[in-house]
Amino acid sequence: MESLGDAKFTETSILNEFKPLDPEEFRKQAYQTIDFIVDYYKNIETHPVLSQVKPGYFQSTLPSTPPYKPEPFEKILKDVQTQIIPGMTNWLSPNFFAYFPATVSTAAFMGEMLSTCFNSVGFNWLASPAATELEMVVMDWFADMLKLPSTFKFSGSGGGVIQGTTSEAILCTLVAARDRALDRIGSNNIGKLIVYGSDQTHSTFVKACKIAGILACNIRSLPTTIDLDFSLCPSLVCAAVEADVANGFVPIYLCLTVGTTSSNAVDPIDQFSDVATDYGIWLHVDAAYAGSACICPEFRHYLNGIERVDSLSLSPHKWFLTYLDCCCLWVKNPSLLIRALSTNPEYLKNKPSESNLVVDYKDWQVGTGRKFRSLKLWLVLRSYGVENLQSHIRSDVRMAEMFEDFVRNDSQFEIVVPRRFALVCFRWNPDSSLAPAGINVEIMNRKLLDWINSTGKIYMTHTIVGGVYMLRLAVGATLTEEPHVIAAWNLIKEAADTLLVKVMQIC
Ligand SMILES: *Cc1c(COP(=O)(O)O)cnc(C)c1O
């Protein structure tokens, strides 16, 4: 019989054997994982793009309690294959044309692995000097690629920071603008602060306003129209600002967009700087998706006027081959951001911070801890060079142009708004000789989209702009090549033909 002493001994030795980071075990599992990833990427087209599972599918496949005893890695990996992958909407599939693509690359993956390897929590310079300084260098490099003026660079009078998402970038700059105004008019006047955007500004702007304490009734969401391709009209902004000021309100922030989420509308940045200067309004440009294209000379004009804005954000996790999450934010006046967001607890005090010679990025963002995100962007920039990054953008745009031509040359379909980047907004609009009169175009397009996505062969999404329901084909998933775009068009045509036959049968 086992004595009590023996049992205790056994218990202790198990504890000693538990090594969460054993280097050789790590090597073994990491190689297995890499093999798994390579196979997934190679075979990605065998999975439906849009996951076909039903809500709650996972609950039935797993035990209801966590395992008490350890399980082998091979078994867990097998479950990823059989239980996780069926529930994945495969964003990296070359047949993914929904939303905006989340582009990736080998370089960014290696960067992601390395930053995960260090797991540095670089809230201030001292906690991770390399993470801080590389981020400063990379943000200045990227600013150069976009031909931003030196006022946005550390080597000039500004600086950049990598946030997780555009939502955080907007929130942080909004809070900086809010506090600048409240310093002047007193914090009890927060109810007087007014912010401006268009009805095409991303929904996260309204969320940021809520978090920042801007009253919902003080958010001016100015209407756009098809005449201006759904871009914000400068004279509308002037009129709204003047009316608000006349009524005793205080305008603080205008959010412009280069490449709106719905239809890639571009607000003409340079036409808002006078009103912003006159009324002390913080001008922010949200170029989450389309900003990456501005590294190409032929697209740079969309940033004309950028020298007079206060901040610009764009997300390399959208169109710049960088794994989620990565949003670059440049500000002209970092001290306003720091004034609004800095903290100085005793437990983080240190000599470099007190010397004021270093950047402490915790004062530029929502959180305290932060990932070493610049590493993946640095790897992308170094591994590919501006040359390849420009041709990456151009190749996506060329494929979108090809699709646009398919649509234009087909009398059953039409382009709804002009294509600017690699997003094509179009709709099915069969002429009345084919489709029976009185059939609603919107309903037909909804049915078309459902039919297409239910095949699992491609995934597309829709939007409604100016009351018009339209289909969005966003080209540019990293693995997408011309034949995928051609196949997507053929599938759309097949869907239209199939549905037309059905409609005829009903009538
Ligand atoms: C995608 C997108 C956003 C949202 O970005 P997150 O990083 O997910 O917060 C904001 N604005 C525009 C124009 C976008 O396209």
Q: What do these coordinates show?
A:
Its cofactor is pyridoxal 5'-phosphate. This is tyrosine decarboxylase. This protein has helices at 4-17, 23-42, 73-84, 106-118, 129-145, 166-185, 204-212, 234-246, 273-279, 316-319, 334-341, 351-355, 374-408, 441-454, 482-506, and strands at 159-163, 193-198, 219-222, 250-257, 282-286, 311-314, 327-331, 413-415, 423-428, 461-465, 468-474. With 507 residues, it is an alpha/beta fold. The strands form 2 sheets. Strands 1-7-6-5-4-2-3 form a 7-stranded mixed beta sheet, sandwiched between helices. The protein has a 4-stranded antiparallel beta sheet with strand order 8-9-11-10. Helix 7 links the parallel strand 2 (193-198) and strand 3. Mean pLDDT is 94; it is low at 1-5. Bound molecules: pyridoxal-5'-phosphate (PLP). Pyridoxal-5'-phosphate (PLP) binds at residues 100, 165-167, 202, 204, 257, 260-261, 286, 288-289, 315, 327. Residues 100, 165-167, 202, 204, 257, 260-261, 286, 288-289, 315, 327 line the site of pyridoxal-5'-phosphate.
Radius of gyration: 26 Å
Main β-sheet description:
7 strands, mixed
Helix content: 40-55%
Order of adjacent strands in the largest pleated sheet = 1-7-6-5-4-2-3
**What share of the residues does DSSP label as strand, in percent?**
5-15%
Kindly report the average pLDDT value.
94
General form = globular
Query: Total number of β-strand segments?
Result: 11
Oligomer: single chain
> What's the SSE pattern?
HHHHHEHEHEHEHEEHEHHHEEHEEH
The end-to-end distance, rounded to whole angstroms, is 85 Å
Category by helix and strand content: alpha/beta
**Bound molecule types:** pyridoxal-5'-phosphate
